[in-house]
Amino acid sequence: MRTKTNKTILVASSSILAAGMAKGAVTYHYVNQSLDPTANYQFDLNDDGTNDFKVFFDNNNSVKPCVVGSNSSNNAYPGTFPNPIPMVFNEENMNPGYPANPASNDYNGVPVVPIGTTVTGQFTVDTNTLTIGDLGGDQHGKNEGYLNQNGETTVVGQWPAGQDTIGYVALALVDTNSTPAITNYGWVQLELDYTQPTAKLTVIDYAYEDVAGASIVTGQIPPSAPVINVSPTNQTVVAGSTVIMNVIASGNPSPTFQWMAGAVGSGNYTNVPNAGDFYGANTPTLTISNVVPANQLDYVVSVSNSFSSITSSPPATLTVLGAGLTGPVPGQQVIYSGYPAQFTVTDLGGGAITNNWQLNGANLANGGVYSGATTTNLMISSVSPATVGNYQAIVSTAYGAVTSSVAPLDIAYPDGSIYESAVRADGAMDYYRLNETSGTNAWDFIGGKTGIYGADATLGQAGPTSDAGFPGFVSTNYAATFNQLDKMNFISVLPWNLNTNTVTMTAWIYPQFNQGNAGIVFTAGAGNMVCGIRYDATYLNTNGINDGDIGYSWNSDFGNGNWDSGITAPHDQWSLVALAVSPTDATLYIINANGVQFSTHVNNHDPAAFNATEYIGTYPLEGTNTFNGFIDEVAIFKSTLSSNQVYGLYQSALGQSVVPPALSIAPAGTSVQVRWTGGVLLQATNLLGPWVTNTATSPYTVTPTSPQLFFRAEQ
What we know:
With 715 residues, this protein is mainly β. It is built from four helices and 58 strands. It starts with 13 loop residues before the first helix and ends with a strand.
């Protein structure tokens, strides 16, 4: 029997498990074998030398985990089964009147049941009993079943996607050579974990009732002395943290537990009480809240039943640190002069920073361009030569202090290109020029959200340049190379933290070969936070070449927010692509030497957080779908650029400087007067936005009511 916190599993008393023992002898195996979607586990339920069941992920059915009967060659159903025939209890067994889908009788969902459920062959059903029913009929006793869906694509039992669930699946072995058929019952305990990037299925243990026709209780094992299946392990934590130690043990009768602790290396232990910050000292899970250095000890657990006792070995050592830091730790930044920068650390121990952030080893104070000097977030309102240097933070608690890694800050110098100036004039929040020819950092020259090139990144590819017909770029403008056959050369970027439904993403792309579901600029976080520009796997024939059309996703709205534009970028040619999202619609643009293509999708867009890793050159869903070709000049705007602005960016690449409206601000008594020569007036309380439209006409007079207010005019 295994218990685990935060899982869907119910615990039965030892009397329930012992009740089934009078009916026969139980064969039991503890496994604890974890499987990824490429692996499988086969087991011999009745120990007759032939594997009866197979647990695996079925790649032919949307990579769903399943339990199936195996034939004598250890292959999955269908096949020639040995006697007895392996059967899997499924949804129909729990509901004999279930209207099965005739086209999918072998794909019924497997329900998860709690410990203490009676598996029986009677023809009655109650809340704590499963029945196998008429095993000779088509509607009962399936040879296979999927853990999370039935044949009608509905989720069944308690195997929900996105969670971590533990439970039991009821099994039977049926000898159809006898009349009536002789049936023996069993169970297998599984853990299905969808909380990890790659789903994991663990076979924990299984058991079999040797006496035909006798029921078995899930979790039931033979009378035995306690066995420690998984011992507690060493841990290192920071003072103030919560520690959870676990032991996995089996035995019948069910064992009792007593946690003990002693000085590290002493070998002498005393009982841990259920008092103060200790909880669960007599259970398989010991919890210590608000850990202090005095809790740095060796921990063991004694497991006992009426047969004997056993103590875990070696001891699990708890190491307590005075203070600690976890991600994100400060990262190196290279930013244009005049733009803000921010450094962040996260304190593991919950203590406050009592010393300061430091620049080149000297403590910083709030004032001037600095704020947050004694918090976990240091803000620099304007980068200048005076702010260049090495930053670090010192986190102190009552139990000690720790110094963060060093984060260099440097200045990025504009190359003077017209396109670069146009991106900055349109108010980009983040700007990845991808001009690096060495190293691992993909610099964000505006927002400081540094990207990291993959292990196999290829840098220094010629981008759109003045020599290639784009005089708005310098001749040494470079781009990054991506290859669908190499899954390690995309760029991962720190979260933008936009929290908005007005956003524009722009990038220059040079596609090569077919793209599939390749991503261009994308993010995928927890819950519904999935947004970005991508290719669709549906190919369109353009000039005899199969190109995927450009699409976008927004907040995992796969109904209306997962849309394909029907427009496509030609191969072996530079194109500017843009996604401009507003609260009520989204427009995709592709602009190149062939002209302008755009398509607008009317849809309500909820704000997206963009608080997870961002990606350039890949679509981080359904595996890694890497772009084929080159990408350059990726810019993110926390505003919905107009069609004139998007086309203006392409014009700037052609060397055609787009003259912005002239704007002036002058005192007018106790107020100020704003004048502009054309376009729309925008205002914000922060230089980086969010910018909102002001419907006033020029001149506009306003009385200051806040510390700062910014204006700009936009065509």
